[in-house]
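Hi support team,

I've been running sequence recovery on a batch of backbones for a student project. Most finish fine, but this one hangs at about 90% for roughly twenty minutes before it completes. I'm not sure whether the input is malformed or the queue is just slow. I've pasted the structure tokens below so you can try to reproduce it. Let me know if you need the job ID as well.

Thanks,
M.K.
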């Protein structure tokens, strides 16, 4: 596997438009090294936990709990009919105290608090621990727990992930490796996103032979507190937490307007309406999609007066509402 390229320079360079629109991943060591949270984590786990508690205002957090035999792999059960973990809600300080007590226990259950909005859970955290995104308004989330393995998945938004306590390993794959990652169900998932079924700690190359091709295109990095990795939209990423206590702060933002829906909705609708058509009809619809979506340009609707283009007009917030309502009406039939 190839190391993810590492860049250097001031924070302003890392947060430039060019860097935040990159289509290839990058790492910057020490990008958030000046954060008080990072400095606390470098002193001790207890200091890191105390700092988190100082910015907490009583919200409960959702956590995943997996038995020791899972070895921190939050995943499906053996039959893929459910999950190998349970879910609970608990106050943040209770979770942190439990993690501290289990830190030296090699047979501790796996505990994982994921995708929790920082501004809700830790309302004063970003006052001293944040990055300058300019006109962007990213969603900041916190992820913490003990040793864990999160299956490879992709996200639609661009992602800047900052390790602020513990150590994490990221393994990234470009979007075109989809077929080689053996992705599981789209609608029944461990945490909302479809995931690779391959166990990266023990890949079964008889069952998943093309995974060897994916590994040839993989990029990997191990990050310490203060380091950050940029994961472009749609890049697959497998994340491992390597120490008994880990904290990650990540920022998500989209390069498209907020009123645009996620393309996964179109994929699910296509599975419903097109995948099982006769092959000839499916190819015809491929051409229709090329014409109206993938190769659309100014000429696509040029023959229609601008005021009459309706769904073919450039998308606006009101146009998005119109299309969404039209879809709802169609699916109600």
């Amino acid at each position: 596997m190839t190391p993810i390229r590492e860049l250097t320079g001031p924070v302003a360079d890392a947060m430039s438009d060019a860097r935040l629109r990159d289509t290839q991943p990058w790492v910057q060591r020490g990008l958030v090294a000046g954060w008080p949270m990072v400095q606390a984590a470098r002193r001790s786990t207890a200091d890191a936990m105390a700092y988190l508690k100082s910015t907490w205002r009583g919200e409960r957090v959702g956590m995943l709990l997996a038995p020791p035999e899972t070895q921190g792999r939050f995943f499906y059960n053996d039959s893929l009919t459910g999950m190998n973990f349970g879910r609970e809600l608990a106050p943040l300080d209770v979770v942190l105290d439990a993690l501290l007590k289990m830190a030296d226990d090699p047979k501790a259950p796996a505990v994982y608090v994921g995708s929790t909005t920082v501004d809700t859970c830790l309302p004063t955290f970003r006052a001293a621990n944040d990055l300058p995104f300019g006109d962007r308004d990213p969603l900041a989330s916190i992820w913490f727990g003990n040793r864990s393995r999160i299956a490879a998945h992709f996200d639609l938004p661009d992602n800047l992930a900052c390790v602020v306590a513990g150590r994490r390993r990221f393994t990234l794959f470009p979007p075109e490796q989809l077929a080689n990652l053996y992705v599981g169900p789209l609608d029944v998932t461990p945490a909302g996103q479809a995931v690779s079924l391959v166990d990266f700690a023990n890949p079964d190359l008889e069952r998943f032979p093309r995974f060897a091709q994916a590994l040839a295109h993989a990029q990997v990095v191990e990050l310490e507190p203060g380091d950050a990795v940029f994961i472009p939209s749609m890049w697959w990423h497998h994340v491992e937490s390597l120490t008994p206590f880990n904290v990650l702060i990540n920022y998500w933002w989209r390069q498209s307007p907020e009123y645009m829906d996620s393309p996964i909705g179109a994929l699910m609708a296509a599975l419903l309406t097109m995948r099982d058509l006769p092959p000839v009809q499916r190819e015809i619809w491929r051409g229709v999609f090329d014409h109206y979506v993938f190769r659309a340009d100014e000429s696509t609707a040029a023959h229609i007066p601008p005021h009459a283009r309706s769904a073919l007009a450039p998308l606006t917030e009101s146009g998005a509402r119109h299309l969404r309502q039209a879809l709802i009406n169609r699916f109600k039939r």
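--
Follow-up from support: It reproduced on our side and the slowdown came from queue contention, not your input. The longest strand covers residues 110-117. No action needed from you.
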